[in-house]
Amino acid sequence: MHYLDLFNIILAFLRADIMTLFNFLLLSHFPQPIEGVLVGKEKFYSRKPGSANQDMSFSRAWFTFLCLLQDDSAEALTDFLDDGDGNSLGSSKVVGVDDNELLATRKALSDARARNKAIEKERDQLLEKLARSEAKQKEYLSTVMHDKDLAISELEVAEALFNNKLEESLEEKFSLESKLVLAKQDAVELAVQVEKLAEIAFQQATSHILEDAQLRVSAAEASAAEASFQIEEQIRSASEGAINSVLQQSKDAIEKALAVAESVGDHTTKAMAAFVDNMGPVDEIISVQSQNIKLSNTVNDLESQLLIYRNDIDRLKLELKQARKEAKAYELRANDVEKLLLEFQESSRKAAVQQEEEIKSLLEKMRKDATEKRKAASKAFKLEIERMKASIEAAKEIARSQDEAYMRRCEALQRSLRAAEAASKMWRQRAEMAEDLLLKKSSSEERDEEAIYSVNGGRIDLLMDDDSQKWKLLTDGPRRPTPEWMARRIRSLRPRFPPRKTHVSEAMTAGYKTLDLPKPDEVWSIAQEKLKEGDVLVEHVIEKEVIEKKRKALERALQRKTVKWQRTPEETKLESGTGTGREIVFQGFNWESWRREWYLELANKAADLSRSGITAVWFPPPTESVAPQGYMPSDLYNLNSAYGSVEELRSCIEEMHNQDLLALGDVVLNHRCAHKQSPNGVWNIFGGKLAWGPEAIVCDDPNFQGRGNPSSGDIFHAAPNIDHSQEFVRQDVKEWLNWLRNDIGFDGWRLDFVRGFSGGYVKEYIEASNPAFSIGEYWDSLAYEGGNLCYNQDAHRQRIVNWINATGGSSSAFDVTTKGILHSALHNQYWRLIDPQGKPTGVMGWWPSRAVTFLENHDTGSTQGHWPFPRDKLTQGYAYILTHPGTPVIFYDHFYDFGIRDIINELIEARRRAGIHCRSALKIYHANNDGYVAQIGDTLVMKLGHLDWNPSKEVHLDGTWQKFVDKGPEYQIWLRQ
C-alpha cells in the first residue's frame, strides 16, 4: 500500500473527528433538530428550516467549517464569528450566545488546533516510519525476488549441467562404441592375419607351425572376446557413473533451491513481523484516539496486503514445486537415458555375439580350408620327400663315384711314389752331372741342347728326351711314405689356390738355365722337409677333405630339409627384447677367460657355434673395470678390457654376425666405480666421458655419501649404486647403450644385478636402445625348510615375474627357480617338476616366453662355484631345458671342457627338428619318484628317470613315434614321424 493512500485514510479520520466536534457545537448552539446532507462522499449536518437569522448563521458556520477543513482556520474563524456587517458572532444580538460560551468555543477550537498539529506531527512521524517500513518491505521483496531468481538460475544451471553430462555420456558412449568397432575390426584383421599365417604354415607343410597358427587363432578369439567385454564394461561403468553423478548434482541443486526457498520464507516472515512491529505506533494512536473506530480498516488493508505477500510466497512455493517436478522429470529422463544405455549395451552385446558367431563361422571355414590345404600340402610334401630321397640317392651315388675316383687317384699316386723311388738313383746321377756342368761353367753354345734345367717348387727337375719320364717327374716327383706327423699336417690344412706349374712345352721352349740350383744335400733332404702348397699329394688330400665336408654338409641340409625346408617368418622376425622365440644362447666365457686373449679365441669359435645350432652368444662385460672380470666398471666408454682391445671386440662381433649369431653384451647398470675421491675422502667422483658426481649416487647407499634419491631396489655394497631416477643419468645410459648398439655392434643385453633398480627404468632403456634380445639377472634365494628345498616356490618365481612385468614384458629373465628345482628334482624327486595346476614349477610355467633357462654360469660354476649344478646330472639337465619351452642357455665350460658337446648338439638337433620355441605347448603326463614324462609341441615326447614308458603304447598319443635319443635311465626322446 502506498504511503499517500495511508495519509488520505488518516486525513479522513481527522476530518471525521472535526465533523463530530462541529456537530457537537451546532447541537449545543442550535437545539433544533438537524438533518444530514450528503455532499460528495462526506455527510454534513444542518438545521431544519427555521428563522432567517438562524439559517444565515448556520450557513456562515457551515462555510467557515469548510474553510477550516482547508486549513484556513484563522480567517474562517473570524468570518464565522463576525457577520457581514462587522458584527461579532459573539454578539448576543445575532445568535443569542453569551461570552462564556464563545470563549469556551474558542478554547475548544484552539485545543482542536493544537491537537490537530500534534496529530499532524504524529502523522509525519508515522509517515516516516511507514516509508522506512515500505523501504524495508521493498528490500525484503527484492531479496525474495533475487533469491527466487538465484534459485531459478541454479535450477537452470543444474539443468544445463545435467544436459552437458548427458551429452558427455552420450559422446563417451559413441566413442566407446567406436572403440568397440575398432577393436572388433582389429580382431577381424587379426583373424585375417592368422589366416595368412595359416596359409604360410600349410605351404611350409610343418605340423608345428599349424599348431602355432591354431594357438594364434584361439588367442585372437580370446583377445577379441576380452576386448569386447572390457569395452562393454567401460561403457557400462562410464554411463552409470555419469548418470549417477548427474542425478546427485541435480538432487543437490534441488535441495539447495529448497533451502534457499525456506530461507526466503523465513526472511518474508521476519519482514512481516517487522512490518507489524513497525505499525505499533499506529495502534497506540488508535488506542489514544479511541473514538476513531475506522482505524481498524487500515489494519484490515494491511492484512490484505499481507495476504498478497503470502500469495506471492505461495506462488514461489508453487514455482518450487514446479522446479521439483522438473527435477523429477529430469530424473525420469535420466532413467530413460539409463534404459537407453542398457538397451544399447544389450544391442551391443547382441551385435558382439553376432560378430563372434560370424568370426567363429569364418574361423570354421578357415579350418576347413586349412584342412584341405593341409591335405594338399601333405600330398605335395610326400612328393617333395620322394624327390628329396631321389636327390639323396643321387648325391650318395655321386659321393660314391667321387670316392672311387679318389681311391683310383690314390693308387696312382702310390704307383708314382714307387716309380719315383726306383728312379731316385738316376736323379742322383743327374744331379751330380748338373753340378759338374755348373762347376765347369760351360757356355750355352757348348751345352747339350737336349738337356734343360729348371726349378719347380724348390727342387730340381731334369727334363730328358723320354716324354713319359718328363711327365712323370713333373707331375709326381720323388716321394717316400708319408709320416704320421705329415699326415696330420695335411689334414689340418685348408684348400687354397696352388701356384701355377710350369708346363712341359713351356719348359722345353724357354731355353734358360737357373743360377740358384740347390746343392745335392739340399736336393735329397726334401724328403725330410714339410710338404708345401704346390705338392700334388697335398692337393689330393685337401680335395678329398673338401669333398667329404661337402658331402656331410649336403646330408645335414637334406636332413634339415625333411623336417623344415624353409625358415618361417616366426623364425626370423625379431621383437625388441625377446627375439624370435627360437634363440639358443651360448655363454661365451667363464670366470677365468680374462686371463687369455679372449676375443680372438671366441672369434675362432663362431663358425663352430653356428654349425651347432646356437643363435646368440653372450659376451663378457666389455668396459674398463676395477676387477678384471668386468663387473666393477669405471669408464663406460673405454672398451679396452682384460678380454682384449676395442678393435678385437669389433672384429669378434663382426665374425659372429658373419655366422648369423647375435652378440649379447653384458652391461652393468646398477653400480659404477668412481675415479676420484671427494674432499672428505669418499670415492664418489666419476671420470671419463660420463663425469658424474655424488648426485648420481642413491642417498641410502651407506658407503659412498650419495646425494640422489633413495634406491628403487637392493643395495650393492661393493661400489656406488647409481640413482636411475635422475634424468641426466638415464639420458647418459641411453646414449651409451645406443653407442654399443650402433658403433660397436652389440645386438642385445644381459643385464647384471637388476635387483638393484626398478624394472621401469629397464623398460625405458630397452625402448631407447631397441635390442634384439634382453636378459635380466634377478638372482634371489629359494625357499628352504630344515635344509631341504620346499616344494612350493611360487613366491620365488612371483618375484621374478614381477620384475619382468615391471619392464612391461620387454625383457626376459633368468629362470633361477627352475635351476634350483632341478638340483633336487633330478635326484629321483621328479614330482618337483609339476605344480598343482599341471605346469612346470619355475618361471617357465607362468611366463615361458620370458623365461631363460640355464644350469650354470660364471657365478654358480667355473672357478667360483657358488652354486654348481650336480655334474652327474648335467646331461639330464640339458635334456630338460633344451626340450622345454623358454630360451635355453649353454655354458662355455660344459660345451668345450666337460666332454658332453656331442650330447648337447644332439639335443639341439632334437629341439630343431621338433620345432620347439619359447612358447611351445607343454603337457606333463607323469611326474613322480620314478620319472618324468612330458609332450612338448606336437612332435616331441621326452622321459627322464627309470619310469617304464613308451609313447607307442599310449592311446592318447596317436601317430608313429621314433626314438631319436636313448640314454637309458637318464633320458629318452621320441619324435613323431
Automatic annotation (TrEMBL):
GO biological process: sucrose catabolic process
Superkingdom of origin: Eukaryota
Keywords: Carbohydrate metabolism, Glycosidase, Hydrolase
Enzymatic class: hydrolase
Known cofactor(s): Ca(2+)
Gene3D superfamilies according to UniProt: Glycosidases, Golgi alpha-mannosidase II
Catalytic activity: Endohydrolysis of (1->4)-alpha-D-glucosidic linkages in polysaccharides containing three or more (1->4)-alpha-linked D-glucose units
GO molecular function: alpha-amylase activity; calcium ion binding
UniProt protein name: alpha-amylase
Organism (species): Nicotiana tabacum
